[in-house]
């Protein structure tokens, strides 16, 4: 006899319609290569970090592509998460929608093709001023240092894309919304429009603190969006998780029909969730350290797995279980890639 509640097993058969899950963010092409400590030191990188590229990193992109084993993967945090959610759901296709900005170039074509292969309904705003954004994933052991050159991703324009009737209709079709904190640097006004729509219609709006620099340097837009956030994700790069979780719970909230949930992953340590005053710990799946190929995308995968259960209206612990499963699959592979089908029951 399974220890799942009976409604969980029947819950799996929920028929989902297209565009139930909406994501918006920075579509990037990941360029990943194994590097050494000298490479990190040369460009002043921490082994495990996520930063935006500055002028001093220009040479990094030129050098990393010359490494002997370079891999190119469709990336961008939110785009990764909605892809994984779609992969976990399998059918119908196009349950997940994605908006973001790319360039009219070869890298942009790759991202379009990869989104299509993943059965995500991607609607990109395409412009030709900036090239498609890239992210250098500098891998050392089981650490990854990410340097994002947003380029085109930074050119997303609310009035030229999100506000168009045909696009806004897709937003309205969704029941669950997810935007990584990274998009706060690009278009806070787009996030606010989506967040308000979710709140006004009692739908679920999720956000991710993403990387330390977001809460450090983009505090103002983050605090502007926070009253609309139903589920907040974070990871181990965030200091003093319990404290942040508590503080976040006490921030004002527009839609009082839903209690805010805060979910923090901590790599191989327990995932922490707070619901109101309650703090719950969820152990992750055991994995042999030697089986870990690349932790890049583990956080995105967790969110993707979580969202796949959330759109099917599953309970919090089931959402976390799905998140742990997805992350466990992703870290055994290079980049945020996955086998043909999930084996999740």
From TrEMBL:
List the pathway annotation. Answer: Purine metabolism; AMP biosynthesis via salvage pathway; AMP from adenosine: step 1/1
Query: Keyword set for this entry?
Result: ATP-binding, Kinase, Magnesium, Nucleotide-binding, Nucleus, Purine salvage, Transferase
User: Its principal location?
Assistant: nucleus
Cofactors: Mg(2+)
BP GO annotations: adenosine salvage; AMP salvage; purine nucleobase metabolic process
- One Pfam family from the UniProt entry? PfkB
Q: How is the cofactor bound?
A: Binds 3 Mg(2+) ions per subunit.
Q: Which reaction does it catalyse?
A: adenosine + ATP = AMP + ADP + H(+)
Residue ranges annotated for the Carbohydrate kinase PfkB domain, each copy included: 39-339
What the entry lists under PROSITE patterns is as follows: PFKB_KINASES_2 (PS00584)
- Write out the annotated subcellular location: Nucleus
GO function terms (MF aspect): adenosine kinase activity; ATP binding
Tell me which EC number(s) this protein carries. 2.7.1.20
| Active site location | 300
Of the GO CC terms on this record, one is: cytosol
What InterPro entries would the database entry show?
Answer: Adenokinase (IPR001805), Carboh/pur_kinase_PfkB_CS (IPR002173), PfkB_dom (IPR011611), Ribokinase-like (IPR029056)
Keyword tRNA-binding in the entry? The reply is no
Function according to Swiss-Prot or TrEMBL: ATP dependent phosphorylation of adenosine and other related nucleoside analogs to monophosphate derivatives.
Family designation? Belongs to the carbohydrate kinase PfkB family.
Q: How does it assemble?
A: Monomer.
Q: What is this protein called?
A: Adenosine kinase
The protein's organism comes out as Seriola lalandi dorsalis
Its lineage reads:
Eukaryota, Metazoa, Chordata, Craniata, Vertebrata
């Amino acid at each position: 006899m399974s220890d799942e509640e009976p409604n969980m097993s029947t819950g799996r058969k929920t028929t989902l319609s297209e565009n139930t899950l909406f994501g918006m963010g920075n579509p990037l092409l990941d360029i990943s290569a194994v590097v050494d400590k000298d490479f990190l030191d040369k460009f002043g990188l921490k082994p495990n970090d996520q930063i935006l590229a500055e002028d001093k990193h220009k040479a990094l992109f030129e050098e990393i592509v010359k490494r002997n084993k370079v891999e190119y993967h469709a990336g961008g945090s939110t785009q990764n998460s909605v892809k994984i959610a779609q992969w976990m759901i399998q059918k119908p296709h196009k349950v997940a929608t994605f908006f973001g900005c790319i360039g009219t170039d070869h890298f942009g074509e790759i991202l379009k093709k990869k989104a299509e292969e993943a059965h995500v309904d991607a609607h990109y705003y395409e412009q030709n001023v900036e090239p498609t954004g890239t992210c250098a994933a500098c891998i050392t052991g089981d650490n990854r240092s990410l340097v994002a050159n947003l380029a085109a991703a930074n050119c997303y324009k609310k009035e030229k894309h999100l506000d168009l009737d045909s696009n806004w209709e897709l937003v309205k079709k969704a029941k669950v919304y997810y935007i990584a904190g990274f998009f706060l640097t690009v278009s806070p006004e787009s996030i606010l429009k989506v967040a308000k729509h979710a709140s006004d219609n009692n739908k679920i709006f999720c956000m991710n603190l993403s990387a330390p620099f977001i809460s450090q340097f983009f505090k103002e837009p983050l605090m502007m969006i926070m009253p609309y956030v139903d589920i907040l994700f974070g990871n181990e790069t965030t200091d003093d998780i319990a404290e942040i979780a508590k503080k976040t719970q006490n921030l004002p909230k527009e839609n009082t029909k839903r209690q805010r949930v805060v979910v923090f992953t901590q790599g191989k340590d327990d995932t922490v969730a707070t619901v109101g005053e309650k703090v719950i710990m969820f152990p992750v799946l055991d994995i042999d350290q030697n089986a870990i190929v690349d932790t890049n995308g583990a956080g995105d995968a967790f969110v993707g797995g979580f969202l796949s259960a959330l759109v099917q209206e599953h309970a919090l612990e089931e959402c976390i279980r799905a998140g742990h499963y997805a992350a466990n699959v992703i870290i055994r592979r290079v980049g945020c890639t996955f086998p043909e089908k999930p084996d999740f029951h």
